[in-house]
C-alpha cells in the first residue's frame, strides 16, 4: 500500500509565526514525561524485588525498556504502512500497556506468597 508521503510531511510543518510557540512548549512537556518515567521503574522494582539480585533485575528491566523503546516506533510505522492508519497501532500500544500492568500485578502477587 503506498501513501502520499509528501502530503503527510506537509501536516508536520508549522505555517505562520502564530504557531511557533508550540516549538518552545514541546521540550518541557517531553522532559517532564521522560523524567517521571526514569524514576518510576527502579522504584517499582525495589518494591517488588530486593536483595542481592536487585542489580541484575534492574539491568534486565532496563534492557527490556530499551528494546520496547526501539521496537515501538518501528512497529507503529509498520502497522501504519499495513493499515494506513495509526488507530490499530494505538490499540496495540494499549494492549501492551495492559499486559505490562497485569505482569507487574502478577509479580506483586507472587511476592506475597
Describe the structure.
The chain is mainly α and 113 residues long. It has one domain. Helices cover 80% and strands 0% of the residues. It is built from four helices and no strands. It has helices spanning 5-10, 21-48, 54-83, 87-112. α2 (21-48) crosses α3 and α3 (54-83) runs antiparallel to α4 (87-112). The protein is extended, with a radius of gyration of 19 Å. The relative contact order is 0.07. The model has no long low-confidence stretch (mean pLDDT 79).
Oligomer: single chain
Shape: extended
Fraction of residues in β-strands = under 5%
Task: Please give the domain count.
Answer: 1
Q: How helical, in percent, are the residues?
A: over 70%
SSE topology sketch:
Blueprint: H1 5-10, H2 21-48, H3 54-83, H4 87-112
Helix pairs in contact: 2-3, 3-4
Notable traits:
113 residues; mainly alpha; 4 helices; 0% strand
Short summary:
This protein has helices at 5-10, 21-48, 54-83, 87-112. It is mainly α and 113 residues long.
Amino acid at each position: 500500500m503506498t501513501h502520499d508521503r509528501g502530503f503527510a510531511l506537509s501536516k508536520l510543518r508549522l505555517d505562520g509565526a502564530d504557531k511557533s510557540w508550540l516549538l518552545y512548549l514541546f521540550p518541557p512537556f517531553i522532559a517532564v514525561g521522560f523524567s517521571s518515567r526514569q524514576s518510576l521503574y527502579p522504584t517499582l522494582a525495589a518494591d517488588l524485588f530486593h536483595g542481592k539480585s536487585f542489580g541484575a533485575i534492574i539491568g534486565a528491566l532496563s534492557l527490556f525498556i530499551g528494546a520496547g523503546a526501539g521496537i515501538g516506533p518501528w512497529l507503529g510505522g509498520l502497522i501504519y504502512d499495513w493499515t494506513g492508519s495509526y488507530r490499530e497501532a494505538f490499540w496495540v500500544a494499549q494492549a501492551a500497556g495492559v499486559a505490562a500492568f497485569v505482569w507487574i500485578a502478577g509479580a506483586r502477587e507472587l511476592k506475597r506468597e
